[in-house]
Amino acid sequence: MTAITIDRLTVDDTTLECDVRTSPELERFFTNQPFRTDYDVSIEDVPDGILVIPVLAQVCPVAWANGADVYVDEVDATFARALEDVQETLCGMYDFLEGGTLYARRTIDPEPEAGGESGLLFTGGVDSTCSYVRHREESPTLVSIRGWTITPDSADDEDWRHLTDRVSGFAAERGLETAFVESNMLSFLDHPMLLAHYKRHVDGAWYSSVGHGLGLLGLCAPMAYARGMDDLYVAATHWEGIDLEWGSRPDIDDNVRWTGTQCHHDSYELTRQERLDAIADYVESDAPGLDLQTCNVRMDGNCGRCEKCYRTAVGLRLSGLEPSEHGYPFSDRDYERIRAALEGGEWVLGQDERYMWEDIRGRARETNPTSPAERAFFEWLEEADLEDLVSESGPPLTHRLLRAGARNAPNSVYNALYPAWTTAKAGLRLVRSDR
């Protein structure tokens, strides 16, 4: 029987830890680390059925990919039903997911204390900033998570400090609370091995394409319960009309819930350009000095030269803002640079980037260019075959060969080669999110 068992759940003030046992055929998808998450609020009084949600949110998609069942002593009954709904969505989206059953010795329906609070997953990017603008009357707690794009490794300490400083500053200026969560959810899972096995089925990486909606929201459950959060928002990456296989969508995130908290996939009805419009209105009325942070390269500002920086800068221009006043070094000379990079396949692009450049192209048709350089770029973009530009980009051949080798290796061979595989994993970690 293929199975995953959640063992030894322990809490020490703000730290949650537990062990996971698997049947032999699933061992390659897990490292030898216990699952661990650190919060900045005590979770001592949170029921075990809520405390188990973070680890279930990480392991259940792995179980579903292998037709495995999951065993746990106690689980919140509301979350157990949520998992059934999320499983139905994911299995309907991906043919390679087989599904599985959660078995619990006990289900609980705890009585949370009076809530009234809300939370928002926040990085300071376009999507999460737009969600803040839309829900600012609620004064949501800004929730930032370390463990996905910023890993728990000491090498990422400086990036995490930059993010927490930026979010804390944003919150302080607006009288908001913050919540910082640190987890080893992707080093507890063997993410490179998941990527090796399933990259051929998905557009991005395992976590971005399959796991991050359920995973990130579920990670917040003990904190949300302890803080009395009735609502927890996660900003949409895509929008209505984009039918992409992606791990965070309304039919995933809106189904995630546990006793006391309902999660929400926010701003799905707005395109990325319309979200920038909402931010532009907020800049004009309340925040003339607002900076955004979307860079794929740096966390201490925007490099101004990666695809996401350029895409955001062009979008800001189209929304009537000057990029250089909001965190992006940008001038008319950069339009030719963007065109050359897109035509030359310099950036690894997916279908979501294609839709985002199409969104920009649609807005450009309605906008009068401000310079000859801008006019020339928009005329080129109008005629560009964006599908072809996406197909010309892709990961290096060496990465594809590494994935194939790891996917087909027996466990004994894989375990012997694991140090070399993890050395290469930085090049295999493909993450795309503007949140």
Structural overview:
The chain has 2 domains: 260 residues, no CATH class; 94 residues, no CATH class. It is built from 18 helices and 11 strands. Strands 5-4-1-2-3-8-7-6-9-11-10 form an 11-stranded mixed sheet, with helices on both faces. β1 and β2 form a beta hairpin.
- Discrete helix count: 18
Morphology call = globular
How do the SSEs run, as a string of H and E?
Answer: EEEHHEHEEHEHEHHHHEHEEHHHHHHHH
Proportion of helical residues: 40-55%
Structural class of the secondary elements?
A: alpha/beta
Largest sheet, strands/sense/barrel: 11 strands, mixed
* Distance from first to last alpha carbon: 39 Å
Task: Indicate how many domains the architecture comprises.
Answer: 2
- Our Rg estimate from Cα atoms comes to 22 Å
Total strand segments: 11
Share of β-strand residues: 15-25%
Strand order in the largest sheet: 5-4-1-2-3-8-7-6-9-11-10
Unreliable residue runs: 396-432
Integer average pLDDT:
90
Keyword list:
single chain, about 425 residues, alpha/beta, 2 domains, eleven-stranded mixed β-sheet, 11 strands, globular
